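mind reviewing this stuff:

——
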Amino acid sequence: MLFRVLCFLAIVTIVPTVKAGAVFRSSTIDDNCRVGSMQWRKGEFVTHSAVVEAGENERLTLVFDLLAPEGGDESWMPYLRCRLRHTDAAGVDDGLVESEFLDGFNIADIGYGEESTPGLTTVLYRHYSVEVPPAEMRVRLSGNYVIEIFEDGTPENVLISAPFAIEEGSVEIAGSVTGRTDTEWNGSMQQLELEVTGLKLDHRVGMQNLRLYIEQNGMKNSCQLLHHPSHVEGNKAVYAHMPELMFKAGNEYRRMETVSRKRCGMHVAEILWNDNLYHEILQTDFPRITAEYVYDQTQGGEFTVREADESEKVPSDLDADYTVVHFALEGSGIMPPDIVHIEGALTGRRIDSGSAMSYEPETGTWRKALLLKQGAYDYRYAVGKSGKTDVSGSQIEGDHHQTQNVYVVRAYYRLPGERTDRLAGVAVIRAEANL
């Protein structure tokens, strides 16, 4: 059976680690490890939810930087290695031993990486890339995986833990998104309708036994679980008119560019030099909750590394510098204990202390500084309500049914007597601006 690999995009800036058990697109990093610009790529392009078939030439690559510790010099050359572990559909360790999901050894070399271009960057870093799953590892099972990256000699100290998954392609998922929902007509919500067709699904699994996970824009807090279809038509399961298929529509991502240290890019008001670092002060943002919907072609919350000042002969992965980017949101009316977060790939698609902004009571402004690699970035603001784990951008960004959200749908099943979940199929469904 042909296997396809689905890598849930994980992009990390310099933020603290999160608790184990974070699932899907969220990744963790060690508190003492300075990790930057981590993302999944398909060829040269950043991907939302990349899928490749075994035997094809295209490969998925996990790229990231390790930033040198203070006082580090050219002799700083950490040698990295990696291993895999299997998890269930919810991203929780399923307790499988390595021989149950791998043939051969569960270890692969990543190497020393490449040094950032001398004289072009003020921040010293080493750039790494690894094919996932590594060619040395022969994966036996579909489902969710985590790649753990560590420095040679200290396998117990995991620097990066990034989830991905392997898809069988045994079902086909089709779907659509509409603003005409069960509760309103072209208002603030979007609703999905899905059809899952069993092409090569194991005969021991009925279509009614599939479990579907739906995620909007890579945010794990948006994930909805569907235990059963609304009805089954032969070899086709239909999911329609269910509360779990309805999502707040949100708004298009905001955009900014830090591609140059010599001139202000998009949405950059000022560039300063302080404490041996470049600081890029963004224009102050304001709430959009009362504004009309405005179409904008964004990256769907992702970012692209790019440096515009130097020769194109040097790849941006090595000559792009890290700068301190200062965000400011004014007039939102949100006050502590509620907290405003910066949402998007630039904060690892996570809502935690690394994405939380600080409140300035004298001006009513929320502020946050992030050390980011030069490039083009998408971001939005979300509010974490006091005492609750969920967040929403509705209070700041507003909700518009036309928003071009990206939904990733995953279909899992478990065979009788097995201890873990298999991933039957995956679909990426994009809302259109003319909903």
